[in-house]
Amino acid sequence: MSTFTRTAIVVSAIASLAGTLAAQSYSPLFAPRSTHREVWVCVDQYNRPIPYAYFTVATGYYAYTNAHYHDDPWHVFSTATPYEGYAGSSGEFGFDLATTIVAQAEAILMSCSNEFGTVYASADFGVGYNDLYYNHHDGIWHKIGGTDTGANTGHGTTDYNRYMRTDAAYGVYYATLDYLAGAPGQQKVCTNDMALWLGGKFDINALIGAPWRSPHASHDRGTAVDVAGPGSGQCPDSYEVNVAAFIDRCVARGALRTYSVNESNHAHCNWANPATYPH
Amino acid sequence: MSSLYAVQRRWRGFAALLLTAATGLVYGQAKPARLVRLPAPLWSDEAPERSRVTGETVFFDLARNQAVFLITEPSGALREARYDLPGAIEPSVWFTVKPGAEGVLDYSYVISDSGRSRQRTRSMTLLLPGQDVDMRPHNSAWPVRHEDAAVPDGNTKVPFGTMRWIIWEDHGSSDAKVFGLSTGLSSKYLPGFTNATFEGKSEKPLTREIVVSLPAEAAAKAARFLEPGFGGRTVLVAAPIFRPDTPKQTIAANLHYGISSLRNQGQIAKDSAWAREALQSLSTFIESGGIAAFPAGTARPSGALEAEIANIVAIALR
Questions:
Q1: Which residue of B has its CA nearest to A156?
Q2: Closest approach of chain A CAs to the CA of B184, in angstroms?
């Protein structure tokens, strides 16, 4: 389905005047679940602001960005409030752009009209974090999850879910070295979910009717990682960890004890309090 | 009586016409030409007086394309400090990707300033993967340099992989508009869409050093002037951003984004049959995991841009 099909419908519904309407460097990049004031002005051919012009604003998303390789009618994206109105005497028209917990590429689609004509504009932006780095070390980690060893969650291979903030990335790296040093004969541990490359909601239930929302609440910020213990069904026996012992290693390397959880078949280590980021 | 009524109606019609015209004159109404996203409240002659009430000290002078800061002197007087923004340009970029020998791809960019540009474009910047050590810029009238960036590479499978800035910059003194300037590079990396950032030539540019020297509240607001959308212009182009072993699903998702964005911007027609088919094929390919061969389309590209993008899709997903 074309990404903006529904957006175009939304715009048309907002105002008949509206009609139909910035890759790795989406710019600007706004944090998930945040609000930003946008102010626009409509100018004439001499670059002079036009007072009291009528504005419409719509928002839309670009499907399949940030490794969300699925799409559906419930896809969430940012909203603009108000979505229509008149400029003041200075020609300025402002609205609040509110992002969601889903990180992806999106766009603002605008129109400006008066009795002499209408112009349209679109501006791309991103939602997400720009401090998450690819984090896999083949010598000590065995990748599990995603379509590689688990179920297809709509994000394909587990490789799309291996990005972390540097503090957490170094933390789990050294926690692994510490653990292996105390486990003679064990070569690797199995790592599963971290975060998508722009972070945000990694919706593991996307293909079973519950997309674009939690669970998987604390994998939004690139500070958490799952390491497999017995019973995961995806990790070779020789790579499984003692979950409690691995969490101790994480905590010794900076993970927060309160938010690093023994999930029975895996250790969930988190280097941040989930209350400090939207999820 | 009826004729008098008719006269009155005629005069009322004239009066309404005059009122509409007068309203237009009073409010300076004119035909909208374009929409501008503002980095700060608009500057006006009343801004200094308003500033005493609102406390607002950071403004954007649309007519002069300048950042304006109101600085309170020790005497209590307000001083205006003005700096040029390098975004009064409207560059157009024609990009092509051509296969060369031994898997090398030649990426070329031909840059021209539009007649509406008020500045001469003086630089073009691309953010490309830092691990592409074989990338070679072509000789160009504009010297090129590299700068490391802390920006993560969202496509790489290299631990802590980052991007780097490739900057072509005109060191000449000419103010003449750029026309047909050719730059480019060679790389084995596959093409995807990314933003090229352009800056115009200005006399007294606003710099990061100036922004951080402002009082904290003003500096926070003024930082917005330095964002690519305000401190320059961004244009979506094809560039070498994918390592050759990147999953085709990832590349297809980027191509889907690029075609969709160009359609939003009006560079590809909304009703383009080729774009509609390409987006549908890419959607199917992505959602099926990107494993099967990408299907050949039946709709013919319309125009040079669509033809070039069709060529890029074929190269990237072959």
A1: B289
A2: 19
Contact A39 B241 (CB under 8 A): no
CB environment B161-170: b (16+ within 10 A), e (fewer): bbbbbbbbeb
Q: What is the tens place of the pLDDT at every residue in A47-68?
A: 999 999 999 999 999 999 999 9
Residue pair B169/B123 in contact by the 8 Å Cβ criterion: yes
For chain A, say whether B8 makes contact (Cβ under 8 Å).
no
Q: What's the pLDDT tens digit per position in B205-247?
A: 999 999 999 999 999 999 999 987 788 899 999 999 999 999 9
Burial of B159: CB neighbours in 10 Å, binned 0-12, 13-18, 19+: middle
> Reading across the β-sheet that carries B66-72, which strands appear in turn?
B58-61, B66-72, B78-84
What ipTM does this complex have? 0.90
Has residue A197 got a pLDDT over 60?
yes
**pLDDT of B41 higher than 70:** yes
Query: Please, which pLDDT band fits residue B269 given cuts at 50, 70 and 90?
Result: very high
CA nearest B33 in A: which residue?
A44
Nearest CA in chain A to B27: A51
Distances, alpha carbon A276 to alpha carbons A21, A221, B35, in Å:
37, 9, 37
User: What global pTM score does this model have?
Assistant: 0.89
Domains identified in chain A and CATH numbers: 5-127 (2.60.40.10), 133-276 (3.30.1380)
User: Under an 8 A CB cutoff, do B283 and A132 touch?
Assistant: no
- Residue in A179, A264, A188 with CA at minimum distance from that of residue A229: A264
Query: To which residue do tokens 């700096």 refer?
Result: B83
d(CA A171, CA A175): 6
Q: Cβ–Cβ of A24/B30 closer than 8 Å?
A: no
Distance from CA of B102 to the nearest CA of A (A): 26
Q: Kindly state the DSSP code that residue B178 receives in the 8-state scheme.
A: P
Does A115 sit within 8 Å of B30, measured CB to CB?
no
Q: Which of A7, A20, A24, A72 to mutate to test the interface with B (most CBs of B within 10 A)?
A: A24
The DSSP call for residue B205 is B
